[in-house]
Amino acid sequence: MQRSLLVCVCAAVVCAARAGRHDAYSSTAVFGVQLRNSSDLELLHNLELKLNLDMWQYGMPRVRDAMVIVPPRVRGEFLSALDEAGVGHYVHVQDVAQALEEYDEDLASWRSSRTPRKIFDDYHRYADIDAYLEEVAAKYPDLVTIVNAGKSFEGRDIKYLKISTTKFEDHSKPIYFMEAMIHAREWVTTPVALYSVHRLVEDLRSEDRDLLEDVDWIILPLVNPDGYEYSHTHDRLWRKTRSTDPTVDTTCIGVDGNRNFDVRHGVGTPTDPCQNTYAGARPFSEPETGYVRDILAEHRGRVQIFMDIHSHGNYVLFAYGDGSLPPDALQIFLVGSAMGAAMDAMKLPEAGFYRVGNSATVLYGSSGSAQDYGQVAGAAASYTLELPGYGHLFEVPPQYQPHINEETWQGIAVTARLSRALYRDRYNAANAQP
Ligand SMILES: *[C@@H]1O[C@H](CO)[C@@H](O)[C@H](O)[C@H]1NC(C)=O
């Protein structure tokens, strides 16, 4: 009797300690919002800014519901604004803290079932990812060069790999520049970049030999290591960098890296540094986005594809965030569509189909994005890739990661080949020796 009581008490203590991890999200719900038309979209956008709400999924009227994270402090105001306008809504996730707990448990049991934990099948910490990049570079010195771009705001080295059979010296070869994890909570993105390294270097298959021989690769798997570490240690849903700027604000931390680039910077973004899409006091206020800019500048004229990898929603998006199109939009669309089709061909039944198009038309208007900057900085085709969420949004169960890696690799391979064919003349002309 006494003994079983003791067990009960212990179990309760363990539960309480574990529940504490995501306490900030207790009583926070995710609401689905049924958008009917552009007025509803605008209403929701205004609420997002006014109440400082975080979007789990942007909606499209009559196509897909918006998903909004609503903390208890603004729940009443949020729901009455929707009710007043007659906009339908429902609870999608009752308690975010509990959903995050379940995700942690899922991850723990996944890990215990997989030894050794492959670097690209799990959400490894910064130090492990860094060690992997160093290890690949040391093991394949003829093929792989590791570059330290510089330090993050908190002082972590941000490294990328250059993969080339000709040490980047053959200027007739186009460059494929892929980067991931500008947004810290999008955990499934870095494994995709690491899996690409694996497939090009450690597990090159005969059918992919052309990808290695004809193209030079730059792979930057972790643009925002400070935010990523913070999403592991403090707040699973952290999106921004971890910078502070006392001249602007002393209470709120971080900038949305994907609004911090120098294309229409700050247009339509909140001026409040506490907001999740705060663009920063000036373009490239964040050292992390500055490194992406520098890589693009260093290789101007040779970058054939710039692929900025995000999650979630199954999108292949291209410039510009204001709805205008680059001159090559049709070719960019063609390559993006081929990518979407290649990934759809392998999709799991529970996944959505990829949607391909201009980011403002297909999704929502934006400014200061990496995608737009990649395009103006000379990439032949610049994309935002939004990986699948399978209805779990940012908390994609880890069981899906191997499939996401494989499917996305097929999409990447298609874009590398097709753009090579489309842009060969352009590159030959640009790189012809006088
Ligand atoms: C959207 O739908 C609501 C409700 O039917 C309507 O009042 C509103 O005028 C519509 N807006 C547009 C732009 O069609």
TrEMBL record:
One of its GO terms (molecular function) is zinc ion binding. GO terms for biological process: proteolysis. Its cofactor is Zn(2+). Residues 122-419 form the Peptidase M14 domain. GO terms for cellular component: extracellular space. The active site is at E386 (proton donor/acceptor). It comes from the Eukaryota. InterPro entries: M14A-like_propep (IPR036990), M14A_act_pep (IPR003146), Peptidase_M14 (IPR000834). Keywords: Carboxypeptidase, Disulfide bond, Hydrolase, Metal-binding, Metalloprotease, Protease, Signal, Zinc. Residues 1-19 form the signal peptide. Belongs to the peptidase M14 family. This is Carboxypeptidase B. The lineage of its organism: Eukaryota, Metazoa, Ecdysozoa, Arthropoda, Hexapoda. The gene is LOC118275055.
